[in-house]
Amino acid sequence: MLQHTCPGLVAQIEQGNLKGPQTRAILEDALLPMLERGIDTVVLGCTHYPFVIPLIREIVGENVRVIDPAPAVARQAQRLLETLGLKQPAGPTGRVQFFTSGSVEPFEQLLPLLFGELAPVQGLRWQTDLVLSFPQIS
Fold first, then answer.
1. Considering its fold, how many domains does the chain have in total?
2. Single pTM value for the model
């Protein structure tokens, strides 16, 4: 197993630099040595990385699988909600709302690029591992 943490990649994604030369350089620094060693699969290990899957695929080519674990995590979250009796019935009443521990305004500006839509964003304040202030969800 080979692994790389891709220092700086999250910052590039959070700045909206999904295809730029610096983002490519970070990914190539991680992926090219692995390709030289004959990898056949890349497993993403960060919630930010799916946003650069097209660039990852450009670099690794069509013979290397790229696995995004997010769908499996979402299915497990659904199972847990069902088990705990917290899953809401499907229907047209749902809405999307984002929360960030970072700056609200830059995140709001990234939403159309990352998610293709606008939605309300509220900030969170953290102290170590505890949430100090969490807005009321209605």
1. 2
2. 0.77
